[in-house]
Design goal:
By secondary structure, the chain is of the alpha/beta class. The chain is built from ten helices and 13 strands. It folds into two domains: 197 residues, NAD(P)-binding Rossmann-like Domain (Rossmann fold, 3-Layer(aba) Sandwich); 100 residues, Alpha-Beta Complex (UDP-galactose 4-epimerase, domain 1). The protein is 42% helix and 17% strand. Strand 5, helix 5 and strand 6 form a beta-alpha-beta unit.
């Protein structure tokens, strides 16, 4: 009988981490989930869930004890409004989490370590135009990441590389490009653009006021990847022999205006967009999936429209429930 792989998911109370716990359980793993909070929207599927603050080394040692593989998703993060106004907090907290979790995993003999980086590591000078050239993994250097969030992600990528070189730990690094889906933060200031727009459009539909606000002119461009594709990509990369950072996202670029109108069409309403001042991030960003296809023989396939339809339906229901309280 095969020995069951014992897995730790940090950040298991968050959006991607919560979904990943359920995904890995279906793959037959024994899963421990750790986070500073429990999942907000439904019960975890973890075999063992522990509420721990991973900024403290002793908690990281406890979390990684008797574990074969770590999926490190824990981070103090949010949408662009949060990221651009909390640089010191983000760099401080996430550096502690990353260093302590990685070294505790090494101390406890963890065989394989998966680190979730971000497209925010890519240089600002390559993202100044809306019709941006898709970003390749090699574009990371010369380095000039976006804000402290991007810098701490890039530094931890380097730390993983050196732990492989110096200690022989098998590390895997993924660079997420705007992952979205149901059961994620949709209000409160930490939500990402798809969730924020779904909430605003659901409110517009339910209230009858069809005007929504948007930061900037809405012509900034991004690509968005649905959570189910993200999970499949994570699992495939962890099982591969590829130890260098790899993009994970869709390579279909849309403007934020286009994203809003897609969601409005799903909601069955017409909207008017009021553009206001606010943080916008880089002008344009897209994922080059050439290496993803080469390494994994796979790439995300769920359309933006299908992913948004599922996400919007869930968020509209949350808005309805919230308005009834």
């Amino acid at each position: 009988m095969a020995v069951q792989t014992r897995v730790l998911v940090t950040g298991a109370g968050g959006f991607i981490g919560h979904h990943l716990v359920s995904f890995l359980k279906k793959k037959g793993c024994w899963v421990r989930g750790v986070d500073i909070k429990e999942p907000e929207f439904c019960k975890t599927d973890a075999d063992d869930f522990i509420v721990l603050d991973l900024r403290w080394r002793e908690n990281c040692v406890r979390a990684t004890h008797d574990i074969d593989e770590v999926y490190a998703l824990a981070a103090d993060m949010g949408g662009m409004g949060f990221i651009q106004s909390n640089n010191a907090r983000i760099l401080h907290n996430n550096s502690l989490i990353n260093i302590n979790t990685l070294d505790s995993a090494r101390q406890n003999g963890v065989k394989r370590y998966f680190y979730t980086s971000s497209a925010c590591i890519y240089p600002l000078y390559l993202q100044k135009e809306t019709n941006v050239t898709p970003l390749k993994e090699d574009d990371a250097y010369p380095a000039l990441p976006e804000d402290a969030y991007g810098w701490e992600k890039l530094v931890t990528e380097r730390l993983c590389m050196h732990y492989t070189q110096d200690y022989g730990m098998q590390t895997r690094v993924v660079r997420f490009h705007n992952i979205f889906g149901p059961q994620g933060t949709w209000t409160g200031g930490r939500e990402k653009a798809p969730a924020a727009l779904c909430r605003k459009i659901a409110n517009a539909k339910l209230s009858g006021n069809r005007e929504i606000e948007m930061w900037g002119d809405g012509e900034q461009t991004r690509s968005f990847c649905y959570i189910d594709d993200c999970l499949e990509g994570i699992f495939r990369l962890m099982r591969s022999d590829h130890h260098e950072p790899l993009n994970l996202g869709q390579d279909r670029m849309v403007t934020i205006n286009e994203l809003a109108y897609m969601i409005a069409k799903i909601a069955g309403i017409e909207i008017t967009i009021k553009h206001i001042d606010g943080p916008q991030g880089v002008r344009g960003r897209n994922s080059d999936n050439t290496k993803l296809r080469q390494v994994l023989g796979w790439e995300p396939s769920i359309s933006l429209e299908d992913g948004l339809a599922k996400t919007y339906a869930w968020i509209e229901e949350q808005v309805k429930v919230s308005s009834e309280k």
